[in-house]
Amino acid sequence: MKNKISSRYKLLVLFIILSTQLQAQNVYSLKQCIDTAIKKNLSVNQRRFQQEKNKIYWQQSKLDLLPSVSTSVSQGLNLGRSIDPFTNSYTTQEINSTGIGIGTGLTLFNGFSLQSSIKQRVLSWEAAEQSVEEQKDNIALTVILAYLQVLTNEELLDQAKNQLAVSSEQLKRMESMDVSGAIKPSELSDVKGQYLNDEITIINTENNIKTAKINLCKILNIPYTSDFEVEKMNTDVNGFGTASTAREMYDLSLQTLPNVKAAELREKSTEWFVKSEKGKLWPTLRFGANINTNYSSIAANSVLTGTDIRASNEYVNVGGTQYNVYKSYNNYESVKIPYFDQIKNNRYTNLFVSLQIPLFNNFALRNNVRLAKIDLKDAKLQTQAVKTALQLEVEQAWENQKTSLKEFAAMQNQVKAYETSFSAATARFNEGVGTSIDYLTTKNNLDRVNSNLIITKYTLLLRTKILEYYDGKKMW
C-alpha cells in the first residue's frame, strides 16, 4: 500500500515538474519577442529577398566585364545544286555537312557604362541591406509597445486586486457592524457596491491582459496559448533622462539610423545610374575571336594506287611512219576523308575589332538619360524628406519624454496626497465620524491616480526607449 502511495506521489511530483518546465518554456523575454517577430515577419523577409536579389545584380554587373564565350554546332543536308563546303565549288550531289565553332567577345570601351553600373549596383545592395535593418527597428518598436502593454495591464491587475482586498476588509467590517445595527443600511450597500465595482475592474483588466497577449502573439506571428507569459522587466524609471540634447540626438541619428543610410545610398546609386546611361551614348569598342571548322560527306582525297605505261595520243614520225608515244600514267583512287580528320584539318581562326557608334536610335538613349536624371531628383527629395521627418520625430520624442517625466513626478506627488486623504477618511469612517460617501470618494480618487501612475510609468518607459533609439542605443 505504501509503495502504491509512494509511486503515485512520485508521478504527481514528476507531473508538476514537467508542467512547470513547459510553462517556463512559454515565457518570453523582450529580446525573445523581438527576435521571434523579426524572424517571422513577412516584411523583413521580403526585404531580405530584395537584398539578396540586389547582391546578385551587383555580382552580375562585375561579371559583365569578363569576355563572353559561346559555341555552336550545326548539321545540314543539301539536296540538288549546292556548294561543297570542302572544295567551295558547285556540286549536285547530296551533302551531309557539319559546322563547329567557338567564339569570344570582350567590350574594350563603352563610355565606362559597365563600370558605372557596378558602382550603382553595389550601392543598391547596400541600400537594401540598410532597408532590412530599418524594418527590423520598426518591428522592434512595435514589439516593445505591445510588450509594455501586457506588463501595464498585469500591473493594473495587481493594483485592482489590492483595491479589492481593501474593499473586502471594509465590507467585512461593515457587515459585522450592520448585524449589531451600528450603521445605516445605506452605508453597507455603498461599501458593497464599491466591492462589486472592484470585482468588475478585475474582470475587465484580466480581459485586457488576454487581449494584449493576443495582440503581441499576432505581431510575433505565433499561435496564442493560455500559458503564454512575458518576462517581467526592470520598470524603475527613477533617473530617467538623457544628457544629449535633441539636436545632438538628431546629428547622431543622421549617422546611425538605417533609414537615413538607405536613403543616402539610394541617392548615390541613382547618381551612378545616370552616369551609366550617359556612357551608352559613347561608341562601343569590342574585340572578338572565332575558331571554326567543318565537315562534308563528299570530301575526298585522290590516293595513288600505282603506275602503268600506256600509249598516249601523241605520235612521232619516223621515216614517214607515225608511231604512238608511250607514257607512264599514275592511277588514283578517290578516298573519303574521315570525319575527325576533316574537323582537325579544316580549322580556321578569325580575329576582329568592331566599333559601334550610336548615330540615331529614335532618341531612346538620350531619353533614358533624362529619365535617370528625374529619378535622381526624386531620390534627392526623398533623402531630404527622410531627414526632415527624422528631425521632427526626434524633437517630438524629446518633448514627449520631457512631458512624461514631469507628468510622472506630478503623479507621484498626487498619489502621496490622495494616500494621506484616504488614510484620514478611513480613520474618520471607522470611527463613525465620516460618511461612506466621503470614504468611497477618497478611495476612488486614490485608486484612479494609482492606475494612472502605472500607465504613466509605462508610457515614460516606452518614450524613453524611443529616445534611446534616436540616441544610438540598443532598444533591448
Per-chain topology:
Elements: H1 2-25, E1 27-28, H2 30-40, H3 42-63, E2 68-78, E3 82-83, E4 90-91, E5 95-109, H4 113-179, H5 185-220, E6 229-230, H6 246-256, H7 258-279, E7 284-296, E8 300-318, E9 321-336, H8 339-345, E10 348-356, H9 364-430, H10 436-470
Helix pairs in contact: 2-4, 3-4, 4-5, 4-7, 4-10, 6-9, 7-9, 9-10
What does this structure look like?
There is one protein chain. 24% of the residues are buried. Among the domains are: 226 residues, Outer membrane efflux proteins (OEP); 37 residues, no CATH class. The protein is built from ten helices and ten strands. About 2% of the residues have low confidence. Strand 3 and strand 4 form a beta hairpin. Helix content is 63%, strand content 19%. Helix 2 crosses helix 4, helix 4 packs antiparallel against helix 7 and helix 7 packs antiparallel against helix 9. The two termini are 55 Å apart. It has a four-stranded antiparallel sheet with strand order 2-5-7-10, with helices on one face. It is an alpha+beta fold and 476 residues long. The longest helix has 67 residues.
What is the element string, with H for helices and E for strands?
HEHHEEEEHHEHHEEEHEHH
Strand segment count: 10
* Separation, N- and C-terminal Cα atoms: 55 Å
Biggest sheet strand line-up: 2-5-7-10
- Beta content comes to 15-25%
Stretches where pLDDT is under 50 for at least 5 consecutive residues are 15-24
Percent helix among the residues?
A: 55-70%
The biggest beta sheet is recorded as:
4 strands, antiparallel
Average pLDDT metric: 88
